TrEMBL record:
Residues 6-59 form the Helix-turn-helix type domain. This is YafY family transcriptional regulator. Residues 133-198 form the WYL domain. It comes from the Bacteria. The lineage of its organism: Bacteria, Pseudomonadati, Pseudomonadota, Alphaproteobacteria, Acetobacterales.
Length: 225
């Protein structure tokens, strides 16, 4: 295994843990000596990785550090390009720009021949549906903010809801907002193309989004069983 690949493997081993892990445990997992782990930790720190801890105590990687991809297989390139092209067609303006920038970065780190193949990649994304409130919904999800929705249901009835946005699902036929509805006191799914208006209602919702998302998943499993 090359040194670069070993550093990436060590970084991934640290990312999988939220608590400090000893050099001995990292050495056993990566198949090198503890002495090599100490050297590799020093190298990663020199490259900007926020690794806290020391010998005899353990190490933990703080969020916010990313190494550039070392290499991609042909299938991995296809998957990445297809995903980014879908985002570019179905995201808001910020996501579209981010997808284009990410695709440019990926092409920049590919070998010359692979970069040319990526530019002519056969993975295509279909036309997008209109989702004018996507940016507002994404921001509310990220900030765990309550939203007011003017919504038209499948019976063409217009309602106003105050919701706690949890996630957005991109499906073949529609984009759907998953949210806890204060009016219905339960999880509801709102098609983005039926949202006439989405605006901040004010204040964070009282439960953490990750808790709500876990509860929604449990509910979906129960309904599917």
């Amino acid at each position: 295994m090359s040194r670069a690949a070993r550093l990436l493997e060590l970084l991934q081993a640290l990312r999988r843990r939220r608590r400090p892990v000893s050099a001995a445990a990292l050495a056993e997992e990566t198949g090198v000596s503890a002495r090599s782990i100490y050297r590799d930790i020093a190298t990663l720190r020199a490259q900007g990785a926020r690794i806290e801890g020391e010998a005899g105590i353990g190490y933990v990687l703080r969020p916010g550090f990313f190494l550039p991809p070392l290499s991609f297989t042909e299938d991995e390139v296809d998957a990445l390009i297809l995903g980014l092209r879908l985002v570019a067609r179905r995201g808001d303006e910020t996501l579209k720009a981010a997808a284009a920038e990410a695709l440019a970065k990926i092409e920049a780190v590919l070998p010359p021949g692979a970069a040319e193949d990526a530019a002519a990649n056969g993975m295509m994304a279909g036309p997008a549906r209109e989702a004018p409130h996507l940016a507002v919904l994404r921001r509310a999800i990220a900030e765990e903010q309550r939203l007011r929705l003017d919504y038209t249901d499948k019976k063409a009835a217009r309602t106003r809801r105050v919701v706690w946005p949890v996630a957005i699902g991109f499906f073949e036929t529609a984009e759907v907002l998953v949210a806890w509805c204060e009016t219905r006191q339960g999880f509801r799914h709102f098609r983005l193309d039926r949202i006439a208006e989405a605006a901040p209602e004010g204040g964070r919702y009282p439960r953490r989004r990750r808790v709500l998302l876990a509860a929604w998943r449990v509910e979906q499993e129960m309904e599917g069983s």
